Amino acid sequence: MPNSKNAKRNYRKEYDNYHSSTTQKKNRAGRNAARAKLKKGGAVVKGKDVAHRNGNPRDNRRANLTVKPASKNRSYARTRTAGKRNPRA
To answer: Which pTM value belongs to this model?
Structure first.
């Protein structure tokens, strides 16, 4: 995010530095697959987030997936080494 109110977000740089990496592409594909899996299974996912309970977006076992409002799924910190701080939140 930009540091000042007038600075614009540089999406190109953000993509080049982060989103274009092989790891992030695989994570994004895992999140998309999880959403499709729950949707196909009959879960109502419109307007909600598909949450991975253990924080691993590539772990798409049904027991690891749940549907939550965005405010609940994005409300706790993630760390680089530990993933979610509260995995059952």
So the answer is: 0.75
pLDDT above 70 for 84: no
Is there a contact between 68 and 85 (Cβ–Cβ < 8 Å)? no
3-state secondary structure of 66: strand
Contacts of 34 (CB under 8 A, 6+ apart): 50, 52, 57, 60, 65
Which segment of 5-9, 20-24, 39-43, 73-77 scores lowest on mean pLDDT?
A: 73-77
Whole-angstrom Cα distance, residue 9 to residue 1?
6
65 with 50: CB under 8 angstroms? yes
Contact yes or no for 69/46 (Cβ under 8 A): no
Rounded to 5 degrees, what angle do the CA atoms 58, 60, 62 make?
165
CA dist 29 → 7, 26, 57, 60, 63 (Å) = 31, 5, 9, 11, 19
